[in-house]
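for the writeup, i need someone to sanity check this before i put it in the appendix. the sequnce is what the collaborator sent (i think, or maybe the updated version? ugh). structure was predicted straight from it, no edits. if anything looks off just tell me and ill rerun, i have time this weekend
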Amino acid sequence: MHNLKQINSNNRITILDGFRTLAIMSVILYHYFYRWNDPVYPYFGGNYFHYGFKGVPFFFIISGFVICYSLEGTQDFISFWKKRFIRLFPSILVASVLTYCFLLIFDHYNTFPDNHFRNLMISITFLPPNLYNLISGIPNHFSYINYDYWSLWPEIQFYTFASIIYFSSKQNFKRNFIIASFGAIFLYYALLFSGFDQFDYFTKLFNLFNLIKHLVFFLSGALFYMLYKNKEYKLYIFLLIMSFFIINYNFNLPDFISSIIMFFLFFGFIYYPKTLHFLENRFITKVGFSSYFLYLIHEYIGIVWIRNIVTVFYPNSFIVPILIIIVMITLSILYTQKIETKISKYLHKRLLNKTNE
């Protein structure tokens, strides 16, 4: 049985918010210090955060864990999707409008030229731009209002995949989910090894329905949840080792190190939670709790903001991204605590006839 002390009054497993903080900070440091380090006024630290984008697959693992947890606490398919809508839609609407308006006013260097109203409209649907490009017949016409949103589409596909399996047979969910996930992953890699990626339709299909490229991370998170619920069942450990080797089948040292860290954190959480108690610090969990909105707003708004003021601090340009990180975290915590929670309570009452989650 899992440790109920790890679950707070809002039915949140606090250590997962600590994990979310690690994931979002690694992504932000990658974007601010490496991906968009100012070309004219470069600042210290870029090379140290080259692999910060590995925070995204860590989010996928966390999501695999959380969705299994959420499914077990949901009565039916419709209620599950209402909860997902309440969790995801208000923030992406606010973040998309905020990003569009901010760039429209302040992106003097045209750093992000795809800031069009049409991209705002398609971004809030969670569907990928290449689907709209396919429907419209105009290549590269649509794009995300903020490219970070790309990771939401695999999430939506995973929610669909997991919820269909769960509500088709709750009793057999674990078995069916594991078989379906490993089966899909092995089929995908078999097709790759057979050279199907040389066919244009294959590439387009799996670029559109791209869950399969990330499914092993969601699967790992789900297996960690199953292990969390039943620590003595060694089959889950064996399956997690299989997942680990699938992630690292084409050995790459940065991928190997990042997956080692992610897996060790989850194993530590399950078997040695006291060693990770520092991640349950109140401030750290607040950042993790607000990480969704922080993820949605940090890159484009933050980069434009940095480029508008970086000259003032040169040659100590590294101060600017640090300041913007502080501002972004503060804004995200305030939004999540003061606005999102109120919207969530209202929508829960309207859509689920509940006063709280």
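The longest helix spans residues 319-352. The radius of gyration is 21 Å.
thx in advance!!
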